[in-house]
Backbone:
């Protein structure tokens, strides 16, 4: 495990070093119309990803950036380590679309169940995930806190190009010009698949409300049956405080930036009233009256 942590932190340091001196424009390249960071994604890797052979018992985690993926990855790893015999030495960058094209060959050797995390849009997920009926956990967070977290990540992470202002970031976020594209496109696509077999939606806010219940639901979805005590200890280790304390050890210098504040409603410190209304209107236009809107409890978490 210690070897794995060192390796992941080293990999992340290498990615950050590659970002040094890049402007925001230079950071991005487009693949099939969506912007991605050149420092961790490449056309060669995307091509190779098409051949990833998902397994039926893979644990797939899909989320738009900054919805809490690293939190969920740690919870899922903890669930795996405490409930199965798997002691997976996975040294890959955790997101399937990130890294070198040879990673899929290495991933073939990993024992089941593997955790496949991704920020890809529904339409760009490897087809074998559906063909082989792997279960997909879809993590969402309210768009206002997601945008705020994304902005802070850019402006705090060492070497990652910063935005000149929150206003500049907000307008790029609203028009989907940020890495991995539009939050709203991502959400609209998932809303159509919310009731698909093998899909479970979970929200950041629900996990914040009650992490123990959240861990229990996730465990049931993936067919694990840990004892109530084990669920409780996973939830205890998954608290923001506990994770932030371990973040440097696991992720290196970017740890405390990835595990920044961990609260609901921090958007109120950045959004102007006009920006808040603009997002309300966009959300209504894209997702008003939908099942995903009900899941996200937009009116609870996104109203001042
Ligand atoms: P903030 O920037 O609002 O603090 P991702 O992992 O997808 O990049 O998401 C990062 C966001 O998830 C950050 O949000 C981070 O603090 C939050 N997060 C990570 N672990 C968390 C935890 N245990 N509890 C609550 N929030 C957490």
Residues:
């Amino acid at each position: 495990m210690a070897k794995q942590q060192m390796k992941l932190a080293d990999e992340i340091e290498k990615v950050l070093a590659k970002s040094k001196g890049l402007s925001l424009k230079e950071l991005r390249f487009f693949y099939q119309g969506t912007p991605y960071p050149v420092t961790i994604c490449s056309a060669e890797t995307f091509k190779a990803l098409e051949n990833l052979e998902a397994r039926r018992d893979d644990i797939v985690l899909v989320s738009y950036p900054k919805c809490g993926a690293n939190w969920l990855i740690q919870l899922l790893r903890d669930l795996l380590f405490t409930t199965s015999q798997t002691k997976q030495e996975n040294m890959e960058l955790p997101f399937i679309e990130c890294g070198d094209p040879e990673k899929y060959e290495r991933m073939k050797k990993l024992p089941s169940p593997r955790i496949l995390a991704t920020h890809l849009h529904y339409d760009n997920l490897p087809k074998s995930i559906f063909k082989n009926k792997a279960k997909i956990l879809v993590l969402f967070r309210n768009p206002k806190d997601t945008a705020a977290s994304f902005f802070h990540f850019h402006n705090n992470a060492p070497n990652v190009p910063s935005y000149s202002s929150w206003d500049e970031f907000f307008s790029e976020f609203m028009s989907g010009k940020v890495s991995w594209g539009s939050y709203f496109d991502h959400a609209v696509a998932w809303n159509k698949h919310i009731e698909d077999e093998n899909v479970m939606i979970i929200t950041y806010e629900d996990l914040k409300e009650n992490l123990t219940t959240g861990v229990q639901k996730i465990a049931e979805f993936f067919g694990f049956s840990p004892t109530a005590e084990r669920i409780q200890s996973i939830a205890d280790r998954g608290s923001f405080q506990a994770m932030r304390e371990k973040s440097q050890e696991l992720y290196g210098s970017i740890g405390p930036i990835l595990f920044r504040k961990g609260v609901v409603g921090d958007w109120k410190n950045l959004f102007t009233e006009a920006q808040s209304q603009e997002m309300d209107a966009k959300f209504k236009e894209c997702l008003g009256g939908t099942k995903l809107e009900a899941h996200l409890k937009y009116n609870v978490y996104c109203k001042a």
